[in-house]
Amino acid sequence: MEKSVDDIIEDIKEYLPYIKAKGGITVSGGEPLLQIDFLTELFQRCKELGIHTAIDSSGGCFSSSPAFLAKMEELLKFTDLVLLDLKQMDADKHKSLTGMTNKHIHDFARFLAEKDIPVWIRRVLIPGLTNEAEELQQLKEFVDGLGNVEKLEVLPYHTMGVYKWEHLGLEYPLEGYRSPSEQEMEQAEHILQPASF
């Protein structure tokens, strides 16, 4: 179902006292930056209402093209927070995991740092895939070097969405991987302890 910015704002207004008291609006997806013009208009209207705005992004569509950067600059005028997933630091391993390298995602993180936009970094911990101590240390060093990261969150991998792949008749790409143990979560959190936030 398609909705206009006006439709969404009318929906938001019904919950305005709660939203303003307890948080704000977070736009996720898919990838919200694929709808950057719509998102900019929505966030501008939210800011007029005094609502905190956040983008939940993988950074996958970030581009250094002048046209995209101009649109991104406009969007960030109305953005309070970006939640950014950093799935893997090594470019080749990232490509194996997601189908693309992570250069543009790292460029996006640096761009947000240059603009001093508050960021929460998230890492999904998958034993045998994203929990190597050396790679987690690289993640920590990258994040520490940004200067705008308010939070680094380790999220346990889970298999709750596997049934969707099965229902669509698709092969689940992380077949055979398991959720991390409590000890594995603690080890990752220990390595990623913040230096500056």
From the structure above, extract its key features.
15% strand; globular; alpha/beta; Pyruvate formate-lyase-activating enzyme; pyruvate; rSAM_sf; 197 residues; iron; 4Fe-4S
What is the strand content?
15-25%
* Secondary structural class: alpha/beta
The residue fraction in helices comes out at 40-55%
Order of helices and strands: HHEHEHEHHEHEHH
Q: pLDDT below 50 for ≥5 consecutive residues: which ranges?
A: none
Taking the sheet with the most strands, its summary is: 5 strands, parallel
Taking Cα atoms only, what radius of gyration do you get, to the nearest Å?
18 Å
User: Based on the structure, what is the oligomeric state of the protein chains?
Assistant: single chain
- How many helical elements? 9
Describe this structure in words.
By secondary structure, the chain is α/β, with parallel strands linked by helices. It has helices at 5-14, 16-22, 36-48, 66-76, 91-98, 103-114, 133-144, 162-167, 182-191, and strands at residues 24-27, 52-57, 81-85, 119-125, 149-156. The mean pLDDT is 92.
TL;DR?
With 197 residues, the chain is α/β, with parallel strands linked by helices. The protein has helices at 5-14, 16-22, 36-48, 66-76, 91-98, 103-114, 133-144, 162-167, 182-191, and strands spanning 24-27, 52-57, 81-85, 119-125, 149-156.
Please render the helix and strand layout as text.
Blueprint: H1 5-14, H2 16-22, E1 24-27, H3 36-48, E2 52-57, H4 66-76, E3 81-85, H5 91-98, H6 103-114, E4 119-125, H7 133-144, E5 149-156, H8 162-167, H9 182-191
Parallel strand pairs: 1-2, 2-3, 3-4, 4-5
Helix pairs in contact: 1-3, 3-4
Domain Radical SAM core: 1-195
Protein name: Pyruvate formate-lyase-activating enzyme
Organism: Thalassobacillus devorans
